[in-house]
């Protein structure tokens, strides 16, 4: 078992038993026991149930709020909300800076977030490289199949289309896809422009 207890798993039957006890007698001890068991349950529905209960009670809870934020962090991490888990653990440590289990889990969460950000950066870079290659291919194809006069007309059309694409981009909420699409289009224009210039120079 790791220092932050992520590998701890509670049987669903045990969670149900603690829930029954809580419903029969709503004490702080029964509440804390159920939350801990449900957050670590083998059944996802128990985890979500515990998260809902924590969200409804965390501001009015009279017990140890740092423990509650810690359990919230574990639960959010388990359902894949890593950013939410980070915030919950930071809130926990604001209350109790000596909560080493929360600090250990926070370090793990930050590592996961760092890997995700690095992966996103690599993916974005590859898309830009692909866009540049696409632009070059477009430019080469233009010089192979069209005369200078035809290329001049095509380039003017691409420029107008680029302006239209820019307007469309402002209307879309998907900034990533729009940005990559725009980059690909602009790189096509650049590739075509360079090769048009070379063709003109060689024929002049």
From TrEMBL:
The chain crosses the membrane at residues 129-148, 179-198. InterPro entries: TPR-like_helical_dom_sf. This is Uncharacterized protein. It comes from Artemisia annua. Keywords: Membrane, Transmembrane, Transmembrane helix.
């Amino acid at each position: 078992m790791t220092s932050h207890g992520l590998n701890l798993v509670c049987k669903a039957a045990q969670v149900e038993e603690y829930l029954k006890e809580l419903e029969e007698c709503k004490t702080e001890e029964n509440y804390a026991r159920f939350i801990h068991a449900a957050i670590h349950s083998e059944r996802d529905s128990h985890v979500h149930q515990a998260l809902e209960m924590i969200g409804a009670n965390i501001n009015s809870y009279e017990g140890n709020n740092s423990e509650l934020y810690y359990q919230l962090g574990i639960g959010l991490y388990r359902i894949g909300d890593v950013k939410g888990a980070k915030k919950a653990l930071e809130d926990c440590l604001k209350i109790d800076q000596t909560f080493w289990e929360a600090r250990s889990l926070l370090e793990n969460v930050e590592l996961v977030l760092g890997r995700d950000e690095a992966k996103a950066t690599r993916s974005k870079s590859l898309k830009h490289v692909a866009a540049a290659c696409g632009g070059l291919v477009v430019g080469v194809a233009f010089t192979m199949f069209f005369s200078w006069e035809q290329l001049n007309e095509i380039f003017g059309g691409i420029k107008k289309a680029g302006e239209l694409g820019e307007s469309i981009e402002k209307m879309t909420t998907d900034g990533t896809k729009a940005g990559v699409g725009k980059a690909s289009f602009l790189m096509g224009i650049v590739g075509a422009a360079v090769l048009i210039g070379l063709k003109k120079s060689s024929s002049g």
